[in-house]
Backbone:
């Protein structure tokens, strides 16, 4: 087949390679969303491919340390991902981690750094309180639409309206405008049932919008006082990065 006829063998090979890469990335996303190890059959079902294809994808990811198997042979995210994640916005993570640690231990809540990725809110780093009785895990790499959850709303508040996702309700638009004015956001039962979250915008010069947030089981703590503590952390990080 010539180029004039349509797709060349090189084009076809490139397309197949892209599909394989896309499927491999999808395996990682499936494992991240599952929050627990999965069997090959479960991954196969999520991918909607033949079991042999899922098996080859997992073996390749396993060879690179991006996935690993637990004692029962089920697949989970591997330690290799941590090394990759540590390289993302390294200076931001380096400055945020001490503040996340201090905030988590002071409030007894899981504190985390979230960043904008297209129309999603992605957890970049998180710290659980040292002596928390009932803490909430917030894994780095966790993502959800920016239209839900306190950190997502804190990200939205930093964007011009023309950059907001389509189809936002009038109520959400009004809420985002309020968040922009008071400089903190709050949510309950929006991303995970029964969990409360508070977030403040972290606007840094030359960077995509970010947010500092906590997630916790409702305990009667005043949201405004939590937001004030988060705002101090955000100001410290912003000053350290010259933002």
Residues:
């Amino acid at each position: 087949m010539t180029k004039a006829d349509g797709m060349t063998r090189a084009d076809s090979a490139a397309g197949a390679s892209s599909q394989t890469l896309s499927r491999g990335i999808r395996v990682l996303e499936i494992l991240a969303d599952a929050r627990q190890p999965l069997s090959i059959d479960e991954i196969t079902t999520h991918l909607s491919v033949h079991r042999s294809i899922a098996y080859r994808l997992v073996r390749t990811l396993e060879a690179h340390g991006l996935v690993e198997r637990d004692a029962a042979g089920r697949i989970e995210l591997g330690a290799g991902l941590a090394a990759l994640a540590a390289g993302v916005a390294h200076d931001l993570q380096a400055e945020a981690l001490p503040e996340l640690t201090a905030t988590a231990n002071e409030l007894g809540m899981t504190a985390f750094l979230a960043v904008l990725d297209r129309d999603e809110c992605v957890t970049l780093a998180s710290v659980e309180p040292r002596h928390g009785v009932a803490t909430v895990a917030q894994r780095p790499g966790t993502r959800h639409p920016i239209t839900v959850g306190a950190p997502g709303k804190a990200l939205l508040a930093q964007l011009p309206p023309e950059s907001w996702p389509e189809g936002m309700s009038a109520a959400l638009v009004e809420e985002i405008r309020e968040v922009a004015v008071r400089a903190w956001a709050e949510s309950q039962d929006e991303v995970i049932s029964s969990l409360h979250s508070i977030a403040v915008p972290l606007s840094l010069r030359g960077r995509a919008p970010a947010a500092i947030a906590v997630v916790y089981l409702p305990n009667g703590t005043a949201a405004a006082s939590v937001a004030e503590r988060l705002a101090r952390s955000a100001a410290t990080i912003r000053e350290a990065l010259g933002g």
Remarks:
- Residues 9-34 form the longest helix (26 residues).
- The helical segments are 9-34, 40-47, 51-63, 80-86, 90-107, 150-156, 170-182, 223-240.
